[in-house]
Amino acid sequence: MEKKIRDALSGSMRGFRLPRYHEIPDVGLYLEQATKYVNQCISALGFENVTGSMIRNYVKQGLIANPIQKQYSADQIAHMIALVLLKQVTNLEYVSNLFQILKTHEKYTPQVAYDYFCEELENNLYFRFGLKDSFEYLGGTSSLEKEMLRSAVTAVSHIVYLNRGFQILSERQSNGTE
């Protein structure tokens, strides 16, 4: 692969980082604020922005807990971020099932599950985009739930890579550099 293309691909993910659970505002964000925050978190990945009506639908479907006094907590925002990314690669029913499985598993508090999700996604993206030489297997335990989450995150990283690759090719064709 040309160095120029490789640099463009890797440059698009350099410095990407999702906020960890303890970094998510827990002061209670209104729908518009929560929507803006989630979109800022995922903007580098190139997915369509989440809208307020999408979030309201997720609440109606039980994928995200009802806001308290119209405000969303860190738990709900973490769920939104994970949901918006995971729905890119599987249907909402499966995402809901995965959330339910993780909720009932005593090791996976919302904080632990979300932070693991972030670390897995970044690990996959950095490796896929050539920012790391090797893929790290995170965590010392293995379970079906963990492997399912890892597979979903890997799929998200591949979709991000494909979308970014097509974007670069399209830009090259538009600029006549191909």
How would you describe this structure to a colleague?
Helices cover 61% and strands 2% of the residues. The longest helix has 32 residues, at 144-175. The protein is an all-alpha fold and 178 residues long. It is built from seven helices and two strands; from the N terminus they run αβααβαααα. The mean pLDDT is 87. The protein has one domain (3-163).
Descriptive key words:
globular; single chain; mainly alpha; two-stranded antiparallel sheet
Question: How much helical structure, as a percent, in the residues?
Answer: 55-70%
Structural class comes to: mainly alpha
User: Low-confidence spans: pLDDT under 50, at least 5 residues?
Assistant: none
Mean pLDDT reading: 87
Beta content: under 5%
Overall tally of structural domains: 1
Oligomer: single chain
User: Main β-sheet, in a few words?
Assistant: 2 strands, antiparallel
Count of helical regions: 7
* Rg (C-alpha, Å): 17 Å
Task: Note the gap between the termini.
Answer: 13 Å
- Compute the number of strand runs: 2
As laid out across the biggest beta sheet, the strand order is 1-2
- Order of helical and strand elements: HEHHEHHHH
In short:
About 60% of the residues lie in helices and about 0% in strands. It is mainly α.
Set down the secondary structure blueprint:
Blueprint (H helix, E strand, L loop, with lengths): L2 H11 L15 E2 H12 L9 H9 L10 E2 L1 H13 L5 H13 L5 H19 L15 H32 L3
Antiparallel strand pairs: 1-2
Helix pairs in contact: 1-7, 2-4, 4-6, 6-7
